[in-house]
Amino acid sequence: MSLNRLLDLYRSMRRIRAFEDAAEVASQGGVAAWGLATSAKPALVRGPLHLSTGQEAVAAGVCFNLQREDLLTSTHRGHGHTLAKGADAARMMCELFGRATGYNQGKGGSMHIADFSVGMLGANGVVAAGIPIATGAAHALKIRGLPHLVACFFGDGAANRGPFLEGLNWAQVYRLPVLFVCEDNRISATTPTAPMTAGAGVSARAEALGMPGLKVDGNDVQAVDAAATRLVGEIRAGGGPRLLHAVTYRFKGHVSVDLGTYRDPAEVEAAKRNDPLLITQRQLLALGATQADIDTIDASAQAEIAHALQVAEAAPWPEVADAYEEIMNSGAGVWK
Amino acid sequence: MSSTQELTYAAAAALALQQAMEADPHIVALGEDLGRGGVFGQYRGLPQQFGPERIIDTPISEANIMGAAVGMALAGLRPVVEMRVIDFALCAMDEIVNQAAKNRYMFGGQGRVPLVARMPIGIWSASAAQHSQSLEAWFTHLPGLVVAVPATPQDNFSLLKASLASGDPVIYMEHKELWGQNGPVDTSLDLPLGRANVMHEGSDLTIVTWSRGVAPTLQALAHEALQGASVEVIDLRTLWPWDQATVHASAAKAGRLLVVHEAVQVAGFGAEIAAHTAEATGCRVARLGSPRIPVGYAQVLENEARLSPDKIAHAAKALLERA
To answer: Most exposed: A77, A114, B141, B279, by fewest CB within 10 Å?
Structure first.
């Protein structure tokens, strides 16, 4: 891999980490939740904030292989996918802050973060719900004769929901241009996934449908990138859907205010030594990058996110009347 | 040349879809058994004309059928979803409720989900508890959805066209017992969503109904229990948006409103119409729907859940006699 490519991948990962670290801090305070007491300090980011901290290599490595016109469906843990697909961090932060200038005009928040202008069709509050939507978007691309594909991110828990089977079967039956990406952080909300999952897991289920795929270390961005390059190439060549199974680890709890005390601290500490950012730094140095190169990227990401926070804090709230906008065309005016 | 022809309710819908698909290459239809013209023949002829890329035979995967339609709509198509019977749409409720209905709002207007989800409703041919339901009230409760309930071949033609043009996700409910009903269809007639049809004028009592409720209500007017009564019958056509102005004006004139539907009466949409109209006009209200029982198989059991001219006439008479 070229040094420049790995620098770009590291930059993408570092932006995600910086964004989520900042959002995490901004989410602290406010109402009692997950065993934490009510705080006098109001949270700037309210409601559930699902962090992908520790999983950045998957989003960065896959999305580096996508073009702007390619589409993407995400999970409830979608900040990384959105940033890596090309969204603007400040407009994303405005949305997390519930401001009128956010991507969703303050109507969605973290759990529905989206930037349709870069093909990012939305995070989703329902596990596995992005899978059928991705197959339909890919079906439309095929019917319309467009050369693009859809990247469909889902978690390990989603493989136990019905839409996983329905969607993968559908994509295979119609040979649709979908890259299914199982972002396997090994935990379903607060419950380890393995004891809840029969058989050999997500790859074996895709294989049973005849869908080719690859399994990679999801903390190694070079491995994710290489696998995504190969699978995306096969999809663009008309090969039909592919599955990428990326095994990673979530450092944080289910939501930002979940301290994850039910997890074995030794397991979490071991995982942090396997931080994808540290792995990538070592790879960069081995490829000839200097520490100064790394520090420059880190500082740039911090500055970008500091600016995003400033923009979000200063941004206007939605108007009350906006509650009645963007619902539907039919029957306007009789919603109260 | 006249634009009016005699068509069945099913053929009227097929003609509407055919004309719309000829005019707009972005319209596709997807669902189980569509390649053979649909389980009720309501897509007859379309597979031959438009081919398998636009009349799409799907696996028995209701969640993915509906979810894929959302994705298709977001990616530039205007899908028509066939759910076969509304009872099967229950396998796709997340895709309808959380995805199709919410998409535009929760993403701040970045996308639109222009799709028409056809879900045949109602009691038909001894189909028992899982193939006979009328669940229109479930969908009227959801912001973001249009709910259409055509009662005639003309309305099935014009409302399907209007639904395809609306740009909204539309829950489109055809009643299975109406598929073979014949009637004149003027293909030049455009109907907006949300305009009721006054089927019979009267001044003593207003009856609001829709779908399969319309025919037995009109028959009830000749019932001996209603001799001498002047009854207005309104076919609502769409439940969201619903024609509040027409219903309120009629109820204000008559002072009495009866809502008639085949769906279970408890928490049915008749309750909303009755409450809304009573609040607006002060009129007396009554409802007639099915008892809160599943639809049974044996004829005697099924009949207990059905509307009939006799039941409607007696409900109307009771309301007329109420002090």
So the answer is: B279
Write out residues 126-155 of A within 8 Å (CB-CB) of B.
126, 129, 131-141, 143-144, 150
A88 falls in which pLDDT band (50, 70, 90)?
A: very high
Q: What is the CATH number of the domain that holds A99?
A: 3.40.50.970
Given B59, B72, B146, which is nearest A140 (Cβ)? Answer: B72
Q: What is the ipTM of this complex?
A: 0.96
Mean pLDDT of B16-42: 97
Among A154, A81, A89, CA closest to A121 = A81
- List of residues 6+ apart from B203 with CB closer than 8 A: B230, B232, B253, B254
For residue B40, is pLDDT > 80? yes
Q: Do B170 and B301 fall within a single domain? A: no
pTM of the predicted protein model: 0.97
Please check whether residues B56 and B182 belong to one and the same domain: yes
Q: Are residues B205 and B250 in the same domain?
A: yes
Average pLDDT in the A285-300 region? 98
Confirm whether A13 is domain-assigned. Answer: yes
A175 touching chain B per CB within 8 A: no
Nearest residue, CB atoms, A108 vs list B99, B107, B145: B107
Chain A nearest-CA distance from B196, in A, is 13
Q: Please tell me the distance from the alpha carbon of residue B39 to that of residue B49, in angstroms, as a whole number.
A: 18
Q: Which of B186, B207, B240 is the last residue of a domain?
A: B186
What pLDDT is attached to residue A81?
A: 98
Shortest distance, CA A319 to any CA of chain B (angstroms): 13
Mean pLDDT for B70-83 is 98
Do the Cβ atoms of B72 and A137 come within 8 Å?
Answer: yes
Does A173 lie at the interface with B, CB-CB under 8 angstroms? yes
Residue B263 and residue B159 in one domain: no
Residues of B in contact with A141 (CB under 8 A): 75
Which domain range does residue A16 map to? 3-315
Number of domains present in the structure of chain B: 2
Q: Per DSSP, what are the bridge partners of residue A155?
A: A183
Same domain, B169 and B302: no
Shared domain for B55 and B122, answered yes or no, is: yes
CATH number assigned to the domain comprising residue B162: 3.40.50.970
Q: Verify whether the Cβ–Cβ distance A135 to B69 is below 8 Å.
A: no
B244 and A334 within 8 Å at the Cβ level: the answer is yes
Secondary structure element (H or E) that encloses residue A178, with its range: strand A178-184
| Beta strand B170-172 pairing with B146-148 | parallel
Which of B110, B144, B167 lies nearest to residue A327, judging by beta carbons?
B144
Full residue range of the structural domain in which residue B214 is found: 197-321
B34 closest CA partner among B6, B75, B69: B69
A/B interface, count of CB pairs below 8 Å: 158
Domain tally, chain A:
1
The residue-averaged pLDDT of A115-133 equals: 98
pLDDT recorded at residue B291: 98
Query: Bridge partners of B200?
Result: B233
| B153 belongs to a structural domain | yes
A35, pLDDT greater than 80: no
Q: Residue type for B150, please? A: P
Quickly state the pLDDT bin for B43 (edges 50, 70, 90).
very high
Asked if residue A330 belongs to a domain, the reply is no
**Min Cα–Cα distance to chain A from B100, Å:** 10
Q: Which residues of B are catalytic?
A: 131
pLDDT at position A335 is: 61
Of A218, A205, A166, A204, nearest to A56 (Cα)? A218
Whole-angstrom distance, CA of residue B190 vs CA of residue A46: 47
